[in-house]
Structure formats: structure tokens, C-alpha cells
Amino acid sequence: MSAAPQLIGSSGDSLREAFGKSLVDLAERYPDFVVLDGDVAGGTGTHHFRKHYPRRFYQCGIAEQNMVSLAAGMATVDLPVFVTTFAVFSLRAVEQVRLSVAYARRNVKIVASHPGLDVGPDGASAQCLEDLAMYRAIPGMTVISPADPLEVAAATEAMLKYDGPVYMRSGRSPAQRIFEHKPNFTIGKAQVLREGSDVTLVACGKMVAQSLEAAAHLAEKGISAEVVNAATLKPFDHATLETSVTKTGAVVSAEDHNIFGGLGGAVAESLALHRPAPLEMVGVRDTFGESGEPDELNHKYGLTPAAVAAAAKRVIARKA
User: Fold this and answer.
1) Catalytic pick from 17, 64, 130, 226?
2) What is the mean pLDDT of residues 56-75?
3) Mean of the per-residue pLDDT values for the chain?
4) What's the 3-state SS for the chain?
5) Which domains does the chain have, with CATH numbers?
6) 17 is catalytic
7) pLDDT tens-digit series, residues 103-121
8) Which Gene3D superfamilies match (predicted)?
């Protein structure tokens, strides 16, 4: 089959569409990898890959445990494998991920769409607010949550080059563009997107855009906020956070996830071990979501630029 067209970068792409298109863009340069799907290719963006490379696409049906076990088996013969499904469905296969993938250190990449409140009208049963915490807790797993379509493309290629198990979130809603060009993406390295001196805003996924908007609002009030894109939650970039916090003395974490165990947990652990400082967490506060449009849910559960800015003001007031 001839090379597929370059697809990444369309205006209004969701992270899931960006992921599916990036697989097509990478397929010629990386001819060995295959994609396994749990009967949701239309929802994960992998329908693009299925169209262009049907012989490298395996439909596993609604059998996530079997799909992960199959992926682990394929990886034993040095075949890089992507496993794709919705985030909440991936939790069905955590035992297989733990033993067949992570314990065995197989080169399997799990990419899950529909995380957090971004799922919207599908409601609490489909809004996965626990995935980052669960995958962070599995020994040997790398955990990634990119911020925009171009970073998804860069992260997907970085995953292909990395030998070992990885979990990456994508997303359902159209994503705000943060990067003008495809960024350099290094697993385990955070990126300072905006420099500041009064407070550090550490975010991942869709909350990076919200944090940048919050920083602009704070600047109008005379508050200088540094924004750090922590796209890799594990291994966490302690050095970048420590450098930022040494300058600002206060931190806000922001994520579309339960405040326990995800990015907030990673930041709290890092501060406790390397550079203690006051911390405020922006995220879902240990509750399930409900049905509603993503913007409505963001406002109800406090995942907005205004909520990030308010947390910044609170944490600045707590400085010693």
C-alpha cells in the first residue's frame, strides 16, 4: 500500500482523532507495529488506521482482558502493539496489564480515549476518573496525558521508540491547540509553557489549556503564574517541578481526574520528597460525575480557568 497522507493538525481535532491520524502518519516509518481494538475504533480514532492499514489492525471485540493478553503474546516476538479502547473499559483488564504486560515487561502501548468528565453525556459509568491513579500504581508502567493534538502525535512516536509498557490518555472533545508546531516530546520530561514567579500551575491533558488561560487572568491581577505541562505523570519530572517551586514557593495541580492518585498525587509526592511547598489541587473531588455537556460539567466540578486562578490565589496566601 502506498504511503498514507499526512493527517495531523486539523483544526478542532480531538486528542483521540489526533492519535488515530498519527498512527497513519507513522505507519510507513515504523512498519512493524500493529493495533488492537476493543470494538470502539470509531471512538478511539483508530478507524483512520483501520482504513489505511487493515492487515495491521485486529478487531478483538468487547473482550478487553483477552485483547490485552493477545497483545502481550504478540509482544513476546518483538512486535510493538497498541491496545485501544475507552479508559473505563481498560480497567476491566487491569489484572492482565499488571501481570501479562507490566510484570513481564512487554512492549505494549495502551491508549485510552474518553477519560474524565470530558466523556460528557455518557455519564458516571463511562467517565473514568481513576485511570491515571491505577496505572501509576502498577510497577514499570509509564503514564502519559498529552495536552493537545500535536503533542499527542509527538507522544505517540515517542512511545513507539520506547521499549516497555505505556498507558496514554487521549480525549473525546475538540482540543484547544497549545503548540504551533509538533513539539519535542521526551518521556519523563515536563515543559514550562509560561514563566512566572508567584505560583506554579502544573497541569496535564485538557487542563493545560485551562491553566494557561488562568495564568493570563492572574497576570491581569498582577500575579505571575508559571505554567508547567506535566504530560508524563510517571516517571515524574521532579527536577523541573523543584526548579519552578524554588522560584515561586507555591503550587496548583490541575487535572480531569480524581484529585487522589493522579497528577495531584504525583505533585504531592514530589513536593514531600524534594521541595516542600503549599499545594492546592484542582480536579474532581473524590466523587463520580454525571451526565451533561463537558463545559457544564467543568463548571459544576471546578475544572475551569476561574477555578485554577482561585486555587492559585488561595495557595499564594498560604506561603510562609
Assistant:
1) 64
2) 97
3) 94
4) CCCCCCCCCCCCCEHHHHHHHHHHHHCCCCCCCEEEECCCHHHHCCHHHHHHCHHHEEECCCCHHHHHHHHHHHHCCCCCEEEEEEHHHHHHHHHHHHHHHHHCCCCEEEEEECEHHHHHHHCCCCCECCHHHHHHCCCCCEEECCCCHHHHHHHHHHHHHCCCCEEEECCCCECCCCCCCCCCCCCCCCEEEECCCCEEEEECCCHHHHHHHHHHHHHHCCCCEEEEECCEEECCCHHHHHHHHHHHCCEEEEEEEECCCCHHHHHHHHHHHHCCCCEEEEEECCCCCCCCCHHHHHHHHCCCHHHHHHHHHHHHHCCC
5) 15-169 (3.40.50.970), 191-317 (3.40.50.920)
6) no
7) 999 999 999 999 999 999 9
8) 3.40.50.920, 3.40.50.970
